[in-house]
Amino acid sequence: MHLGRYRSLDDKTKKINDENSAEPNDNTAESLNSKTESTKPSENLSAAESHPQDDQSKTGTAKEPDEGVQNTEDKDDAAIDPSSEKQAAASGDNAGDSSDTENANGGDAGEASADDEDEEGSTIFQKKEPVKHAEIKKKKSRLKVIIIMLVVLAVIAGAICAVVFLTPNSETGTSSTTDTSISVLDNDTLDIERLNITNPSGELEFVAAKKQNDEGETVDSWTMTGYDMTLIADSFISSIADKAAMLDALRKMESEADYGLDDPQTIVNVTGRNGLADYQIFVGDSSPDGSGSYVSVSGQDGIYLVATSIIELFNSTPEEIANNVLISPPSEDTVSEAYLAEDGTISYVDKISLSGAFYPDEIVIEHTDNEMAAYRLSSPISRYADLEMVNSVLEIVNNGIVALQAYKLQPTDEDYEKYGLNNPDAVIRITYDGKTVNVTAKKQSEEEGAYAVIVDNKNAIYKVSTDAMTMLDLRQTDFYNQFVFLEEMSDFKNITIVSDKTYSFDITYNADDNITSEKLNGKDVDDSLFRTYYSYFTSMKPTVESSYPSGDVAMTVTFTYRDTSKGQIKMEFINHNDRRYQVRINGNSEGVIPYTYFDNLKNYVVNVEQNQGIPDVV
């Protein structure tokens, strides 16, 4: 064993112990390199000391030697390859887990090796530093985790404090009656005979009564003096009576201040029965925070803060107590089975009329028995109606109407004039099942976003949202069906076409088998071919124009009904200009069609006569 410059093993052991107790230097590589430059190679090194394979310290991280034990005889060991610092960094992570073999190769910095190493090149000194760096990194990592945990705990603690300190204190009088409730009155509503309320809007009187409910049972109810109870929501009156009987407060006031009760804004006079004595409820000023108003009760000491929601009931106007359901959807109890569809809506109505400023020419729409067109306009022109548009109007009876509020109960002539109902935009009448629904409407300002509405014979004016009255956006031409001729071919016994020549088709119909057959001037024609030709009439979609100039009749088609009571339909095609033809049915101009479509109507009758093919309508 080579002990280098130590005189004995004990001396070297003592030196190792001194080195282990020394303070580590983080600038080992820099210090070691500086010593290498100032130290000349030793001439007395043994072969083992100078052999590259024995100098294992060159693969570790260099450690600065103790200045007190530096010896010039070990100068060769101090001349360490600068790259050893990078190599040590790569191998330092494995220093704590190396085996005995690694100790022999300078891999374990934790044990003292008895190699022939010099102090400055010894594995003992070079492997200590990576361990120290790893420990420092681990300590820094633990510190980061601790800081993050402290931040998270601080956030949670802050949230808890916010909940605790920002939740309203019920004793401040700002919380709801459910948070704190002080009973001021605890009477039974059934023991109240009458309520007389004087509030800033006027006077109200409610009297206990009886009525029949929908099941035919007699139940307790209320009447409102001076008003038709069909206009009033008696459930609203019940709410007022309940609060007058069982009154709760947010808190009792400790001060003896006036609180506006010397001249109360509202007085509720309660007339009792069944042993309940009469009493009064006085309402004074509102609290500064708006949570309620100050209230006192006759025969009781104390002033209370009562929630605004209760005070608003006592301060109600007749319009706020109104029943805002103007039209209810249909049901089996209100509409006969013949008029109800499977989904519970009204399947059809007998007649609809629309008049008013939106409809200067009254529109009358009537139900038909035509399977191809359920409704037809009978005024101001005769034309099939668009079913989708008709159903839009029927939303009034199928969906019902619920008002936003009542503008005025029991209105005067001045009220009708104020809301423009003396000159309404629309008057809709819907007749079905032996009854007629009447709706009169006048659109208010855009800011209002509503119609003033009167329904049936209700003595009131209501505010109804424009969204509930979208059918009033429709105008006369919107109700026109795009198809102007929707008749079953089997309904006619003869169709005569006059253009360059006359074509008279007699039609026979077997109702039992639902079969038709046709003859042209006494000669059989192909039924399928004739039906294809007939579909060109039922598929015709003229474009409506504001005016139609006079012109020559280019073709006439006369449809004679099998039912003689219905008479005939006369269809004329008039040369409108070089590219379009006007279609006129029974004297009414229905619109114009392209000349190409007219040519098909004129020419394909020849194909029927000659039994030649006809393309289907595109």
Walkthrough of the structure:
By secondary structure, the chain is an alpha+beta fold. 24% of the residues lie in helices and 29% in strands. The radius of gyration is 52 Å and the shape is elongated.
Helix vs. strand class: alpha+beta
- The average pLDDT value, as a whole number, equals 79
* Annotation field: number of helices: 15
Q: Termini, distance in Å?
A: 111 Å
Helix content: 10-25%
Order of strands, main sheet, comes to 15-14-13-12-18-19-20-21-17
Radius of gyration: 52 Å
What is the count of β-strands? 29
State the main characteristics.
618 residues, nine-stranded antiparallel β-sheet, alpha+beta, elongated, eight-stranded antiparallel β-sheet, 15 helices
